[in-house]
Design a protein that fits this description.
single chain, five-stranded mixed sheet, Actin, Chain A, domain 4, about 25% strand, disordered C terminus, alpha+beta, Dna Ligase, domain 1, about 35% helix
């Protein structure tokens, strides 16, 4: 864990440098597309680097000055499989975004969807030396959190203190300066497979770019798609990507759980490709223009021209009814939603005061999906698109850009940095996840 802290620290220094220069790139390395946004930060004082806490601390105002996407290559299940192909695709996207922004970019913040994320709820408590909470006390209580044995080959990606308690008063966001005798802390830690994270890091280095931060796609999508009240009262964000579907749960403006289902829109396309015996590109086109998950009487009569260029006239002139297409798509969509349901149940989502579910990501655009999701996941389901970022080009305002836009917010005020004190990480006894959820159920 210590070596990861070092690399996270190095990234924070990079990010500080990039902020001082005023330009940074956001890179969303997905299974179906690679998106790049170039941000310009206003003025050298915009980023103060964690000298305070809260939404206004270290927050920078920024605008998007360049945007580009390209078809993803070499990425499956949200993880890099073919380094050179992915490197070419990243270079293409970054160069196009730089051209639009008319500036050169050296630093990028990236997000990743796969890597088998796992959540842990940690807690720690200390007695205060004198009655006022100081910065070193916060550092002490964070280091007092008992760290479980994550297993070999895993790294911490996010570590957020989600609650502080001072004596009998719980639910504090920032205890510094307050008076009491005993300080306790609940912390959420997200770990990922280190090999996957290292591959992304290495791939970005090969593109002659410096990595100034890395975040989970599920976390970034939640940051941009959930409205303030949903983040406060409790909500889940389901980010349906091409190769993986991210799940994140927020409450009290903090992420308390994240996971990933290794199924996404590409699997639906593959089913259509096999079912109709057409190439993947044709299947993708049919899914985009005619897809759906709820069949009505009309759909038996609506015929879809398949087309093709195999040279076999009969084969190329086939058509199928929309009802048949829905019959191919629906079982896979149901499977993805059932897997998401299992993840939410494991996290204890039903114990939260509000059970709002927001669907986002490119895969969420299938007509009728919200109705089907409400049946499988629970009643309060809505479709989300990225919010809170001004100046986005029209092409980047859709749900497929939820995690890229969330990364912009993460770049402007990263939560991990508020508590970047010197934390010694030496302890390794085991601890389970449900504690954080149980704590929220008991306290709110």
């Amino acid at each position: 864990m210590t070596d990861l802290y070092q690399s996270q620290r190095a990234m924070r220094r990079m990010r500080k440098q990039a902020m001082d220069r005023g330009v940074i790139a956001i890179l969303d390395v997905g299974s179906s597309k690679i998106g790049c946004l170039v941000l310009r930060f206003d003025g050298p004082d915009a980023f103060r680097g964690g000298d305070g806490v809260g939404a206004l601390a270290g927050q920078s105002s920024f605008r998007v000055i360049g945007a580009a996407t390209t078809r993803s290559r070499g990425v499956r299940f949200g993880e890099i499989h073919a380094m050179q192909e992915t490197e070419r695709a990243i270079r293409t996207a970054v160069q196009a975004a730089q051209k639009m922004a008319q500036t050169r970019v050296d630093h990028v913040i990236a997000c990743m969807a796969g890597a088998q994320p796992r959540s842990y709820g940690l807690e720690g408590a200390i007695d205060l030396a004198d009655s006022t909470v100081r910065e070193e006390d916060v550092a002490r209580v964070l280091s007092a959190c008992e760290v479980p044995d994550f297993g070999d080959g895993r790294e911490v990606l996010h570590a957020h203190p989600v609650n502080f308690a001072l004596d009998h008063r719980s639910g504090l966001n920032d205890p510094r300066g307050q008076i009491g005798n005993r300080l306790a802390c609940d912390m959420h830690v997200l770990t990922v497979e280190s090999a996957v994270a290292q591959n992304l890091l290495y791939c970005i280095k090969r593109c002659d770019l410096e990595l100034a931060g890395v975040a989970s796609s599920a976390y970034a999508a939640g940051l941009s798609s959930l409205v303030e009240d949903e983040q406060e009262l409790g909500a889940a964000c389901i980010d349906m990507g091409g190769g993986a579907t991210g799940v994140s749960i927020f409450i009290k403006k903090h992420m308390i759980y994240a996971d990933s289902v290794r199924l996404g829109g590409d699997h639906i396309t593959a089913d259509i490709s096999k079912g109709l015996q057409v190439p993947m590109a044709t299947a993708e086109r049919i899914k985009t223009f005619h897809g759906g998950v709820v069949a009505t009487g009309m759909d038996d009569r609506e015929m879809i021209e398949i087309g093709g260029d195999t040279g076999d006239y009969e084969h190329d002139r086939r058509s199928v009814s929309r009802a048949e297409l829905i019959g191919i798509m629906r079982p896979r969509v149901e499977e993805i939603l059932e897997d998401v349901r299992a993840r939410l149940d494991a996290a204890g989502f039903e114990h939260l005061p509000s059970q709002q579910i927001v669907l986002t990501g490119g895969g969420s655009q299938i007509p009728g999906l919200d109705g089907l999701a409400a049946r499988i996941l629970g009643q309060q389901v809505r479709l989300g698109r990225p919010l809170r970022v001004q100046g986005l080009p029209q092409a980047a305002t859709g749900p497929a850009f939820a995690s890229a836009v969330g990364l912009c917010l993460f770049a402007a005020h990263p939560q991990d940095e508020w508590w970047d004190f010197e934390i010694p990480a030496e302890r390794y006894p085991a601890r389970s996840l449900k504690r954080a959820v149980r704590w929220f159920r008991d306290n709110w």
